[in-house]
Amino acid sequence: MPTDADAILYTDGSSLGNPGPAGAGFVLEEPDATVVERAIPLGETTVGVAEYRALIAGLSEAISRGVQRIHVYSDSEFMCRQLQGQYKVRSANIRPLYEWACKLMGQFDEFQIEHTAREGNQRADALARRAAEQARRDQEADLGGKENQH
């Protein structure tokens, strides 16, 4: 863990199709060895939205736990570059999530976000894929219920 961070956050989003059933996942590691993991089914959306939703959920959890300095790793290069100011946010679907993430980032004394290869983000990736699969199952159950109503 970098010495300048109170916590490390790994985030990932997944969409089974783009758009498709999607999920967000994050792993928050604190210096005292506390680890918080979440898999969040999102319903039908794009992978870009899922990436931002994972980040927002992880940052919100860190804030609620009193983290002041955080280092974020994501395998979404476009999201990292947007939040570092290197890429413009052109998507109307992403803009409000980007702004929300920026507001959360501003609540930390120190914030870093870094792109990592998928291999460096395996736990968050697995959580996001599990959440996307749950979103697919939820969607199929909803469709099955609607078919039975006719």
What layout of secondary structure does this protein have?
Elements: E1 7-15, E2 20-29, E3 35-45, H1 47-64, E4 69-74, H2 77-83, H3 95-105, E5 110-115, H4 122-149
Parallel strand pairs: 1-4, 4-5
Antiparallel strand pairs: 1-2, 2-3
Helix pairs in contact: 1-3
Characterization of this structure:
By secondary structure, this protein is α/β, with parallel strands linked by helices. The protein has a single domain, classed as Ribonuclease H-like superfamily/Ribonuclease H (Nucleotidyltransferase, domain 5). It is built from four helices and five strands. Strands 3-2-1-4-5 form a five-stranded mixed β-sheet. Helix 1 packs parallel to helix 3. It is globular.
List its traits.
single chain, about 150 residues, globular, 4 helices, alpha/beta, Nucleotidyltransferase, domain 5, 5-stranded mixed beta sheet
Largest sheet: 5 strands, mixed
How do the strands line up in the largest sheet? 3-2-1-4-5
- Helix percent reads 40-55%
Q: Count the strands?
A: 5
* Poorly predicted ranges: none
Q: Beta-sheet strand percentage?
A: 25-35%
Number of helices: 4
Radius of gyration based on Cα positions: 16 Å
Output the CATH homologous superfamily: Ribonuclease H-like superfamily/Ribonuclease H
H-E order = EEEHEHHEH
How many structural domains? 1
CATH class: Alpha Beta
CATH architecture: 2-Layer Sandwich
- Could you please say which CATH topology applies here? Nucleotidyltransferase, domain 5
Mean pLDDT across residues: 93
The end-to-end distance, rounded to whole angstroms, is 56 Å
Secondary structure class reads alpha/beta
